[in-house]
Design brief:
single chain; alpha+beta; eight-stranded mixed beta sheet; two-stranded antiparallel sheet; 57% helix; 10% strand; binds flavin-adenine dinucleotide
């Protein structure tokens, strides 16, 4: 992809030409081949064992992981000189999306290839990679990541696990308990975070065979029951000094940078799961008859199908737009330079807000999808005979791990405001201009010759509204704004919807000219349905933020701005919903 390198968060103030966004229609043959390999693997090797896996027969997970190794699916992020493939982020997102249909297995896969392997790839010394990487990327060994503790989850840096250097300086003694460790039951290599001398937060590579590492019992979970989640207890666990990963006292960099990657990949994974769940819902709706006809003939069911199709289309557009942004930025780093991975982390961190958006938006879309798919199934959706029940349970974790959706929302707004304070994003000057526009009456003429002109005006208006509210918040609370979580959460909701609507519209604008009239109509319907729903959500968040921040005359003025800037002319909404639903019902799957 060859767009100009965009700054993280600049979508809030700048326009993006549609040619600059990466879309699923841009997948190369190689990327498609990886997707097909993954789909085939899941269908042939995992789904036939789904029930055994759900009953925690982890042998199928371990064997499946080895098979993934043989297929090259575990080495996508490792450098070529380390025996990997170092593919682009689009490919790894695509694999993440396709593997997600394997349910619990996909959690093991994601933990292994993401938080389990990336610390070693990014921070490992040549000796550490020599010793461990081949085992990990071949799937011989499974990997896990141990950050959370019983007393420290979101506040990960308050971890209590300690590390003390032995008298002879040859090893550290680790003591503490790590909580909720994915792959804990069968992993052979653990990235463990501990504080040296109760102070210096540091990462260690810990083998299962090291004396003093004890694997706890499996947690009894609500969902993803076929993934392994255990405590890892470190009881005077002896870790050789050469297994310190990265710099002493810099463990937080490892912990958090790896999570940025996890967040955008999670967006892709949950989008794949949402597509699968929707397909299941539509098939059921076509089969199930009530009042003498399939329930898919009812408007109430059709509206659900239309709304979900549109939301998943937005998820998908957002995820691959972000993959394109990351790939463009990463492609500017020269391979083989000594600080390659440091530059790499910086390039990913540039889009930390967008990674958070991917995590929150897409997991919320999956949540809505599985809830409605259960509803479409009626009573059968409540019983485990149908997969809808498992989808519903399995979904829930996505809003909790990789940083809860609350923590991610706070991070999204926090990151944007921080960039503004550092002068990396001219939010303040733009906010002043936006505020001035409140005082000037508007006579917006929409140029209908421009594709998706109505939606583009809405996007621009929402950006103006965000700037007005952000400006008002900063002016009122100054640096104390970071303590006003309710405001930050509402601001995050506006930011998220802006990025999502814009991603949906830009993709449609880019691909529409090459489509058949029928397909163009479906796409336009998806854009309309999604823009309407998302702008309503943004409007609610904006109204809330206005009440949280202002009072008196200024509040009245801002509320009138909320009304003006969230207006979206969704004429023909009902026909759009019906057209979209009919097409999805005919296709019996996610449409795009
Ligand atoms: C199945 C599963 C697998 C997991 N896998 C791993 C793994 O492999 N490795 C690993 O290290 N961890 C793992 N985790 C842990 C997971 O990352 C944490 O559960 C998560 O970070 C939340 O921490 P917590 O559970 O302690 O919740 P808490 O941090 O106690 O949060 C509880 C609630 O308070 C909110 N909250 C907390 N702090 C704030 C704040 N500052 N402002 C506003 N709201 C706040 C949260 O959003 C949440 O709603 C896993 C968890 C589960 C359930």
């Amino acid at each position: 992809m060859a767009g100009k390198i965009r700054k993280g968060g600049d979508f809030l103030i700048a326009e993006t030409p549609c040619q600059d966004v990466f879309t699923p229609e841009d997948f190369s043959d190689e990327q498609r081949a990886f997707a097909e390999t993954t789909e085939k693997f899941v269908t042939e090797e995992i789904l036939p064992h789904q029930e055994e896996i759900e009953n925690q027969d982890f042998s199928h997970v371990v064997v499946g992981m080895r098979k993934c190794g043989e297929l090259g699916l575990l080495m996508m992020d490792a450098a070529e000189e380390d025996g990997g493939l170092e593919l682009d982020k689009v490919s790894s997102m695509l694999v993440g999306e396709k593997i997600s249909t394997s349910g619990s297995f996909s959690v093991a896969f994601a933990a292994h290839t993401g938080i389990g392997t990336l610390p070693l790839i990014y921070y490992g010394t040549a000796q550490q990679k020599e010793k461990y990487l081949e085992k990990i990327i071949s799937g011989d060994w499974c990997a896990a990541y141990c950050l959370t503790e019983p007393g420290s989850g979101s506040d990960a840096l308050s971890a209590q696990t300690s590390a003390i250097l032995s008298d002879d300086g040859s090893h550290y003694l680790l003591n503490g308990t790590k909580q909720y460790i994915t792959n804990g039951g069968f992993a052979e290599l653990f990235t463990v975070f501990a504080k040296i001398d109760k102070e210096h937060f540091t990462a260690f590579l810990v083998e299962k065979s090291f004396p003093g590492l004890i694997v706890g019992n499996e947690e009894k979970k609500m969902g993803i029951k076929g993934s392994s989640t255990t405590q890892i207890i470190l009881d005077n666990c002896r870790v050789p000094v050469e297994n310190v990963l990265g710099e002493i006292g810099k463990g937080h960099k490892i912990a958090f940078n790896v999570l940025n990657i996890g967040r955008f990949k999670l967006g892709a994974g949950v989008t794949g799961a949402a597509k699968m769940a929707l397909g299941e819902g539509i098939r059921y709706a076509n089969e199930r008859k009530q009042f003498g006809q399939p329930i898919s003939a009812f408007g109430a069911i059709q509206e659900k199908i239309a709304d979900l199709t549109a939301a998943i289309y937005a998820s998908e557009s957002l995820v691959y737009r972000l993959a394109g942004l990351l790939d463009d930025n990463l492609s500017t780093i020269e391979k083989g330079i000594p600080d390659y991975y440091e530059q790499y982390q910086k390039a990913v961190e540039e889009y930390a807000a967008e990674c958070g958006i991917s995590k929150v938006f897409c997991s919320d879309v999956l949540a809505k999808t599985v809830d409605e798919v259960v509803q479409i199934h009626g009573g059968y959706g409540f019983c485990s005979e149908y997969p809808a029940e498992r989808y519903y349970r399995d979904e829930r974790i996505n809003r909790i791990f990789e940083g809860t959706n609350e923590i991610n929302r706070l991070l999204i707004t926090g990151m944007i405001l921080r960039r503004s304070m550092k002068g990396e994003l001219p939010l303040q000057s733009e906010a002043m201009k936006a505020f001035e526009s409140l005082m000037t009456p508007s006579f917006e003429e929409i140029d209908s010759s421009i594709p998706f002109a109505t939606e583009k005006v809405t996007i621009q208006n929402l950006k103006t509204l965000f700037l007005i509210l952000a400006g008002a918040g900063v002016q009122k609370f100054m640096e104390k704004l970071s303590d006003e979580q309710e405001i930050l959460m509402a601001a995050a909701d506006i930011i998220i919807q802006i990025f999502a609507i814009e991603s949906a519209v830009l993709r449609a604008e880019k691909i529409s000219p090459g489509l058949s009239p029928a397909r163009q109509e479906q796409l336009a319907a998806a854009v309309k349905v999604f823009t309407f729903n998302a702008s309503e959500e943004a409007a609610t968040a904006a109204r809330k933020a206005a009440y949280f921040v202002e009072e008196g005359d200024t509040l009245t003025m801002i509320l009138s701005g909320v009304r003006r800037f969230t207006k979206y002319d969704a004429g023909g909404l009902l026909s759009a919903k019906r057209a979209l639903a009919h097409a999805a019902i005919d296709a019996e799957k996610y449409l795009f």
